[in-house]
Amino acid sequence: MHGRVKVRTTEEERERKKKEHALKVRAYRAAMGRILKKRDAGELDDEMLGLTVQILHRNPDVTTLWNIRRECVLEKIKQLSEAEAESNKSDEVQAEAGAEEKPAAPEDKLQSVYGQELNVTEQCLMVNPKSYNAWHHRCWTLEQNPQADWQREVQLCNKYLKYDERNFHTWDFRRFVTAKAAVPAEQELDFCTEKIKVNFSNYSSWHHRSLLLPTLYPNEQRDRPMSEEKLQQELEMVLTAAFTDPNDSSAWFYQRWLLGGGAQADQAPKVVAFRMGVTGAVIAFKKPCPDFEQLKVGLSSNEDSWQLQSWQPADSRRTTWKNQTPIDYQKDRSYSLKLSEQEIKLLPLPTGDGAFYFVPPHAASSCSKELLDELQTQLQSCFDLLEYEPDSKWTLLTSALLMRAIDATANHERSLEHLVELEKVDALRKGYYKDLAACWTLELELAKWATSPKFPKRFELTAESALTSLPYGQYLAIADELELSEKLKEELGDRLPQTFAELKLQE
Question: Is residue 153 part of a domain?
Fold first, then answer.
């Protein structure tokens, strides 16, 4: 039996772990009790900092302790500021006394305080590199320090990203410090490229790239995430990444952003529909506009202009707003809508009893021949891959998106067929694909409606599909009548969009 290592039995090991856990809990409670007692007494001193470190080194995610440390740091800053004021008063006296040794300057002590906090966060990040609290405290400490070394923080990010290039906490922190250090966007883009070459499956790096490109290569029409030339290059690069590992989703997500989801966001709320008559007006936005009441909305006609006030939300998402103030509409005059810095010309209704504005949701943007050729090449590559892997969900979805980017109307039916296939291949996300099919269907129907002789009074949903939702409902606020299937009306219930007729004043 000599020389053999004694192995604990399962029961012995369980008892040992139980005792260790009990000791840790007892120590934690004792330390927290002491910390909270000192906090109640206002003792924000070095002992308090030492007590908090004991716990944070083991568990960096105790938010209360980080808050207490910030209170201690602010108290130290206050004390050092007061000491500096006293020091300035006694400088002349000390000079006359000829003191040889000077105590550490308040500024040096202050930097020591900041340095201690940074060291604590580094030690905590070694325990948990994805601790929200530790990263937040580091950001807070750096912002407090007017002499923060931002370049050092950039190098620290480089170090951490060597350990884990996909840690989105580090990438978030990197965006914070590179902005403070004024790192050129071109340099950051090169850094992203290198990280992607090392590992294609890097969501954070692709995302970081998507934030840099619109700034470096802006698109004047704002209907694409970047200039067409750079977009073509990005599509070529991402296709290589996607086909290297078709089952990895990171490159496919980035490609989806390139294909249309990345149209540059407008700063001002975008009006998609507006209608007015003698009984009031209704306005609809592309996205929810919860602060619309704070915006100035005006009408102008010839030399006259006036404000429209007292708007009320017409739906729960606040994408549609109504105004039931009577308007002195005259059919022989032209009108314009003014919102923030936008001025929108209104068209007269065919019946002559009001004016309106409408822009349907665009399924795709126009593109140059070179970009169109690249999209068609990528679509063919997807079709080729589907011959070998017909159940590749990312290839099915991307090919549908490419078809819509090339010609949404001509490829509508085939793209919907891909979504039906995806419901079988990826059944867990069946509802998502149904919603996506509804969006694509309504985009086409709204575009048809804009050229219909019944526009804008009557909207008929002619698509023969089992829709269970009605996206873009705010676009229908300018209609008087909605022709929908009874099944869809029952499915929508209270979510059925209100028409202009239903929003009129009671006469």
Answer: no
